[in-house]
Structures are given as C-alpha cells and as structure tokens.
C-alpha cells in the first residue's frame, strides 16, 4: 500500500482509499495514477473514483524487486543461532542486494460494466487492453497513455495495471511438470510433492515472471466534481 507512515492510522487510511496493490511474492514497487492538472495533487491514485467528460490520461510506474543474496544479513545471523535460522527458513532470510530485477512489460486491463443483461461479459473485458514493452533499466519503467475511446463510448470504465518482471527461478513454477508426446498429449507428470515421492535434491525450480496488480481506477463519464461546482456557481 501507499501510506505516508507506518502508523496504524496511516495504514488504515491507505486501505480505505484503496491505494493498495498485490504481488505474486516479489517486492515490486507500483504506482498507477490518472493524471489531472485541474486538481492540486495533479493526479488521482489507484483506487480512485473519478468523473470525467474528457478522455482520461494515465501513468504507470514500476520498479523491480531487489535480487536476493544467499543466506541472511549479518545483523540477523548475529541475533539468532544457526540452528534457529535453519528451522525458521532453512538458513535463508530477506537479504536484498543492490541489484534489481528488470521490469519487462506493463499491461493495462480495461473493463466496461454491463449496461444490461444482453451484453456479453466476455466482450466487455479487454485483457490486456494495452501492452507496453519496457527498456531494460534498474530505475524501472514508466509509461503514459490515453484512452481515446472513452468519450465516444460515453460510459463507465474500469482500468488496472499489471506489471511483469524478467523471469527468475521459482519453486513449482511448472506445476505438474508434464511431459508431452509428438501430438501434444500429456504422457506423464512429475509434480513437486514435498515428500518422499520427490527426490530431496530436486529444488522444483523453473523460470517464471513475478508480477504485480494495481487496484483499479473507476472512471465515470460526465462532469468532474470541479466542473459541476463551477456550473452551479
């Protein structure tokens, strides 16, 4: 979540604003904003509900998680004996290096809520709606884009961002680890069972892309709160 501090009140405030996002495990950093120069902050963050009479403009920024060093940081190794560390995490801790994984791609999903039961739900979900390939950079990736169809469609739309890191070894990423014949049919499987049926030397690793998903931004077609107040005056 995006909180100003780590106090209870700040954390609850961020959750109530829905300024939160999820990851598949890696500590990816993610921001998803609707840009609006007419307000003091200049943006509406993820989780916002906005009324617009113009095509919305968005910005997504993401930074990859730190690559991990083996073992545990020195301050943890000095605080706990080796036996305790082995029991807690097989001798491994959160131990970030100075190098980050690269953000490889940013995807935008757009959803149009049903106007009536006759509309096909599948046709209203564009996943992905937009795709941006990122240049390799330790500073992460940032893109800006506009929905040129928003005012033409004249209806509510929901947008959220999904970002993907470069592939990295991940436990059980291949799930059943199926073997296929020449016709593409499954011949056998070798899942990582975590017991005597899987060899103790098998780490069950395969490459997978860690990812993060933003909270949505809800955009309704119509006058903004500021425009409505001006019209009333």
Runs with pLDDT <50, length 5+?
A: 225-233
Order of helices and strands: HEEEEEEHHEEHEEHEEEEEH
Mean pLDDT: 92
Number of strands: 15
Distance between the termini: 37 Å
The percent of residues in helical segments reads 10-25%
Structural class: alpha+beta
Task: Give a brief rundown of this model.
Helices cover 17% and strands 39% of the residues.
Description:
- With 233 residues, the chain is α+β, with helices and mostly antiparallel strands.
- It is 17% helix and 39% strand.
- The chain is built from six helices and 15 strands.
- The chain has helices at 8-16, 74-79, 82-89, 121-124, 150-153, 225-232; strands at residues 21-23, 29-35, 43-45, 49-52, 57-63, 66-68, 96-100, 103-111, 125-133, 141-146, 157-171, 179-180, 186-188, 205-214, 217-221.
- The strands form four sheets. Strands 1, 4, 8, 9, 11, 14 and 15 form a seven-stranded mixed sheet that branches. Strands 3-2-5-10 form a four-stranded antiparallel sheet, with no helix packed on it.
- A hairpin with a 5-residue loop joins strand 12 (179-180) and strand 13.
- The chain starts with 7 loop residues before the first helix and ends with a helix.
- Residues 225-233 have low confidence and may be disordered.
